[in-house]
Amino acid sequence: MGFGTLELRVRTYGKHGPDVIVLHGGPAAVGDAEPTARGLSKTFHVYEPFQRESGDRPLTVATHVADLHTVVEAVTEDCRPALVGHSWGAMLALAYASEHPGRVSALVLVGCGTFDDGSRKRMHEIVNSRLDASTRQKLESLDKDHADADDRRYAEYELTKRAYTFDAIPSDEQPQLSEPFDMRAHTETWNDMLRLQEQKIYPAAFSKIEAPVLMLHGDYDPHPGRMIYENLKAYVSHLEYRELVGCGHTPWTERLARKEYFMVMSNWLLAHCDRPLE
């Protein structure tokens, strides 16, 4: 889908109901929002934008917020959309809603990322506690085995990803990313998010958010949901927290939680998001 001189890809699902924009994680995990978008499409008109790839200039949070605003303005005309973001996408949803507080009707944060050092430290402790001795040994050898920093980071992800799930459906039943992972886009974007946190811009800026916000968080997600909630609620005035039992970081892959995930999210969105004009 073209937006003037900017080319952004946006997939759409469903034909009726309130507008919902689903934001993928990563950063740069292009395509991982598809299961959520499809699950919501029975009730909502859903858009799934692919965030910008790496290019001539380093990617920043501000760039992604501006791109998302272009999408919001282009695809929603008669009402304010709701934003559903997973992991990094949840962080982007908060950043967008603080920059454009009157432009969104509701936010759902799925497995939201961390906004302080304490939460990140706790997350790493939880992940490490779930790794066996062999995996820890391989992690200790990453610097020797992978000279390239991006290769090291991807190898670390592959070694630790099992620590993020509770009881996942078989891997051959799980959706696969439809695009190559852009590690440079991931690194540039995440480094800028860390910079904004170090400068105390986030999460303080979230006090501007006007829309109601729901945190949906798995009880087995190593991102410490209640710590993240406690950190955010000091700034986000309309923040609710709902924990999914038997659920890791990606609820749509979890055998026990995925049905509840879609039911809770859909019902909450129907109660809080704008209805299209007849």
List keywords for this structure.
Rossmann fold; seven-stranded mixed sheet; two-stranded antiparallel ribbon; 10 helices; 9 strands; disordered N terminus
CATH C-level class: Alpha Beta
Largest sheet: 7 strands, mixed
What is the total domain count? 1
Q: Name the CATH homologous superfamily.
A: Alpha/Beta hydrolase fold, catalytic domain
> How many helices does DSSP assign?
10
Shape: globular
How is the largest sheet built, in terms of strand order?
A: 3-5-4-6-7-8-9
Report the end-to-end length measured between terminal Cα atoms. 26 Å
Please give the CATH architecture.
3-Layer(aba) Sandwich
Series of secondary-structure elements, N-terminal to C-terminal? EEEEHEHEHEHHHHHEHEH
Q: What helical percentage do the residues reach?
A: 25-40%
What does this structure look like?
The protein is of the alpha/beta class and 278 residues long. It has a single domain, classed as Alpha/Beta hydrolase fold, catalytic domain (Rossmann fold), CATH 3.40.50.1820. The chain contains ten helices and nine strands. The chain has helices at 34-40, 61-75, 88-99, 117-129, 133-140, 142-145, 149-160, 183-198, 225-233, 258-272, and strands at residues 2-3, 6-7, 10-13, 19-23, 45-49, 82-86, 106-110, 213-218, 239-244. The radius of gyration is 18 Å and the shape is globular.
